[in-house]
Amino acid sequence: MISSPGKTSSVARYIAVWLVASAAFTSVHAAEPYILGISDKLTIKVVQWKAADSSFQEWAALAGDYIVGADGNVNFPMLGPTEGAGKTSTDLATTIGAGLQQTLGLPTAPSVTVEVSAYGPIYVSGDVSTPGEYPFAPNLTVIKALALAGGERRSAEAVARPEKEMLSTTGALDVLEDEYNRLLVRRARLEAELTGQSEIAVPPELTDLPEISALLSAETAILAAQKRQAEAQSTSLTDEINLLTTQIEAFNQKKASTETQLETARDQLQKISTLSEDGLALSSRVASLQTNVADLEARLLDTETAALQAQQAIATANREQARLADQRISDLSLEKQTVDGQISALALKIQTQQGLVQEAALYTGAAVPGDQAPQYTYSIVRDGKELPAQIDTPLVSGDVVMARLALAP
User: Fold this and answer.
1) Beta strand 400-406 pairing with 121-126
2) Residue 3 DSSP symbol
3) How many other C-beta atoms are found inside a 10 Å radius of the C-beta of residue 402?
4) What pLDDT is stored for residue 155 in this prediction?
5) Helix, strand, coil: what percent of the chain each, to 5?
């Protein structure tokens, strides 16, 4: 069959336009070819040139919309699952054409066009205003994805969490830290008391604290008062012991004098008793001497008893002095143990409160005193792996963009 010149010219023009369009499409995408990804929606057309009548025959049964599945394949009629993810549209078109040629036993491969009619989504998660699913577009980067998600959460949340929350959390932290510092100085005072020191050593953690002088002054006053009280108790007992010792010395002197008098009285009684037996002395004289001896013996016994009682009182005072010293050490040790527990508990509370302050800083955009300003970090989850990213990192469909806001440690 011979075609008319007009028809041949029309077909030639159609072929030329189609080739130019195909070349233009290829040249545009050759610069930065798009790599197909999961969930991409594709429009595929198959056309075969029929030389017999110089016309194109479109395979309408195969034309249509296809989706790159979760396994990365495109289920194409007569070919089954065909790998699509990771290829360009041109590569996929070539693969489909070659597959149809082989499957159908065609002398030449049909012409296949693959166009992306809708890109698979990307996902934005983390510290952004509106996390969720967003449509992909060529040349999409991390910063553009953040813009789609409404930007960083900090600016949006600052309205919902006013600055008074930041002031409240930092104020509570200041109170905890002040109490913590006071407990550190109190523990230093207790350690000074336990070791018998008259001055309090500055805790290393508080060397540069502006109000350390005031804290030390208060605890030093307590240290001095406690020392005076302990010294007063010890001095009182020492004075009592000294007094009792003096009394014992007096009793010993009195005892020696009484013993001398008693010895003399007994000698006189013996002599007078002998004379009375011989009728040379009155019996009344003997009775008087006997009474005197009995009185001296009673006085000697009273003196010895008083000396023993004084010695017992000294022993009691010594025991009381030792008991007070031991009790003071025990009380100081117990108080120090209590303070140590309070310091540990406060350290945990401070750590928790610091976390709340940091969280408030994240939401309000404020910097914590002494810390760096909040910083964003980005990553991309692709093919099940999390990869570090920058704001200009290019994305592909199916990527999950993670934005995290954190304070520098």
Assistant:
1) parallel
2) -
3) 21
4) 46
5) 60, 15, 25
pLDDT tens-digit readout, 194-214:
998 889 999 998 989 888 999
| Rounded Cα gap, residues 81 and 91, in angstroms | 15
More confident residue, 169 or 163: 169
Cα separation, 330 vs 224, in Å, equals 19
Alpha-carbon span 96 to 99, nearest angstrom: 5
Taken as a whole, the chain contains a residue count of 409
Token pair of 247, please? 């009394």
- What are the chain's domains? 35-118 (3.30.1950.10), 123-154+371-407 (3.10.560.10), 177-364 (1.10.287)
Tell me the pLDDT tens digit for each residue of 38-90. 888 889 998 887 776 777 788 888 888 898 888 889 998 888 899 988 888 89
Residue 363's pLDDT band (boundaries 50, 70, 90)? low
Cβ atoms of 402 and 378 within 8 Å: the answer is: yes
242's tokens: 């000294």
Residue 305: both structure tokens together: 């008893």
Q: What is the DSSP string of 215-276?
A: HHHHHHHHHHHHHHHHHHHHHHHHHHHHHHHHHHHHHHHHHHHHHHHHHHHHHHHHHHHHHH
How much is the average pLDDT of 217-223?
A: 90
408: which 2 tokens? 């520098």
In sequence order, what are the residues at sequence separation of 6 or more whose Cβ sits closer than 8 angstroms to the Cβ of residue 247?
306, 310
Residue 153: pLDDT band with limits 50, 70, 90: low
Strands (E) in 274-353, as ranges, are: none
State both tokens at 230. 């302990």
Q: What is the spatial distance between Cα 126 and Cα 202, in angstroms, rounded to a whole number?
A: 45
